[in-house]
Design a protein that fits this description.
Shape: globular
Structural class: alpha+beta
CATH class of one domain: Mainly Alpha
CATH topology of one domain: nitrate reductase domain fold
Radius of gyration: 24 Å
CATH architecture of one domain: Orthogonal Bundle
Number of helices: 23
Helix content: 25-40%
Length: 499
């Protein structure tokens, strides 16, 4: 999957679609398999990125990797008391309101109110937190400033980010990453969690689950949840009943900003352990090297040998995810340093890198600000390439912060993508508005390593692509799934491709 963050408007339609279908029931009130966070922010559950608290994901050892907070010895020691589990207050105590009070209250001098009520205890409660409590930086002091990714910034950069005129934020939608090296699968003592061979979706067998909740600890993204009513763990299933029928998952189908892309990726399953144990500096590059070219004749031959249908190979060749991640190199995994090899990639947001102000405009801005009037500043596009790249390096939203999220700390990985996004924008501005010269547009593309054809393709998939180009879903092959259930001695997860 790929989520294009420059297009997310933070409407939460995806979250509501998922909630109405999958978690609108007893014991799952607090669960949001899909949630949209505001960054900077501590997210949901609170401070989920701080693995010093939760001990999620993998850590590198001499030979390979080992689970950070669970595993045979660690799990046994915490089997009766696990200190690394998020509490209900880290998520939030789910609530509703006594709406009947608004219509059934007797006539009186005061206005009736709908008191908040806990959906767990049924008692009146004071709301202290919600699943998106820091939405639009509304809780900056309590939430946004506690974002662990800000630790990479200097004190001056932190202070500047929260000054009103400097404040910037973006939305980060999150679902289960359906990782290639899922920590939740490795941590489950019951063997209830597995990665489907036919499409790579990670699922929890509800009959086998014994409520050890090691999966909740092990998942560094905290996308495994415990249902207090059924006593089972649950998670995003990528709407596999919809996928099997050729439909996009509910969160993707309902996305207003059309930020989501889904397609087949072929990968070399034999390299998973080796790649997961790579040095942090090479982790993202090594993960991308695992992803195979669906047009390569040898890859096609081996895929067919492993039982992958031609329809799936064809879907891989049309996959928008392959374009974003491998061909254009414009999408990155979230917190690759957790070493789960997530298969949800993000196109980082362009954010305020749009134009530069002339000196005169800066003076005008200061005068207007002094008078306390509304800003009315004309933005001027300065398309000299040197100035453009300088502006990107000095963006008011620090590249260091984005690198902490998506680049495993490597700022160059972020700036390369931002340069491409900006180059496409300037090229399209020449093509549609005409206030930029053709020479400058071509220079900008060249500087970013793009051609006109590439820029047009990126623009189309970003803005104009219809449904069938954004979601390339191969037909389900029930006969393959049935075959894998037989005792053939073949590992069920070895088919080697995923959606």
């Amino acid at each position: 999957m790929v989520f294009h963050l420059d297009k997310c408007i933070g409407c939460h339609t995806c979250s509501i679609a998922c909630k109405n279908i999958w978690t609108d029931r007893k014991g799952a009130e607090y669960m949001w398999w899909n949630n949209v966070e505001t960054k900077p922010g501590t997210g949901y559950p609170n401070k989920w990125e701080n693995q010093e608290i939760y001990k999620g994901g993998w850590e590198k050892n001499k030979k390979s990797v080992s689970l950070k907070g669970t595993g045979k010895s660690k799990g046994l020691g915490n089997i009766f008391h696990n200190p690394y589990l998020p509490k209900i207050d880290d998520y939030y105590e789910p609530f509703t309101y006594r709406y009947a009070n608004l219509t059934n209250s007797p006539e009186g001098d005061d206005q009736p109110t709908a008191r908040p009520v806990s959906q767990i205890t049924g008692k009146n409660m004071d709301i202290k937190m919600g699943p998106n409590w820091d939405d639009d930086l509304s809780g900056s002091h309590d939430f946004a400033q506690q974002d662990i990714n800000l630790e990479s910034l200097s004190q001056a950069e932190k202070e500047a980010m929260f000054q009103l005129e400097q404040m910037a934020f973006f939305y980060l939608p999150r679902i289960c990453n359906h990782c290639l090296n899922p920590a939740c699968v490795a941590a489950c003592p019951s063997g209830a969690i597995y990665k489907r061979g036919e499409d790579g979706i990670v699922l929890i067998n509800q009959e086998k689950c014994r409520a050890w909740r090691m999966c909740v600890t092990a998942c560094p993204y905290k996308k495994a949840y415990f249902n207090w009513n059924t006593g089972k763990s649950e998670k995003c299933i990528l709407c596999y009943p919809r996928l099997e029928a050729g439909h996009a998952p509910a969160c993707m189908h309902s996305c207003v900003g059309r930020i989501r892309y889904l397609g087949v990726i072929l990968y070399d399953a034999d390299k998973i352990e080796e790649v997961a144990g790579s040095s942090e500096a090479n982790l993202i590059d090594r993960q991308k090297e695992m992803l195979l070219d669906p047009f390569d004749e040898e890859v096609i031959k081996q895929a067919r040998k492993n039982g992958i249908a031609d329809s799936t190979i064809e879907a891989a060749q049309k996959s928008p995810v392959y374009k974003w991640v491998k061909e254009w190199n414009m999408a990155l995994p979230l917190h690759a340093e957790y070493r789960t090899l997530p298969m949800l990639f993000y196109v980082p947001p362009l954010l305020p890198v749009m134009a530069s102000l002339s000196n005169q405009d800066n003076q005008q801005q200061e005068k207007i600000h002094e008078k306390g009037k509304q800003w009315n500043v004309e933005w001027i596009y300065d398309t000299s390439t040197d100035d453009l790249w300088s502006s990107i390096r000095q963006v008011r939203f620090p590249v260091k912060y984005l690198a902490s999220l998506f680049g495993a700390g490597d700022e160059r990985k972020i700036t390369q993508i931002i340069e491409k996004l900006m180059a496409v924008r300037i090229y399209r501005r020449w093509k549609t508005v005409g206030d930029i010269t053709e020479t400058k547009a071509d220079k900008t593309l060249e500087k970013a390593g793009l051609t006109r054809e590439l820029a047009d393709n990126i623009y189309r998939l970003t803005t104009l692509a219809p449904f069938e180009e954004r979601f390339v879903i191969p037909p389900a092959h029930r006969e393959e799934a049935v075959e894998m259930m037989k005792d053939t001695g073949v590992h069920k997860g070895s088919v080697g491709f995923k959606i």
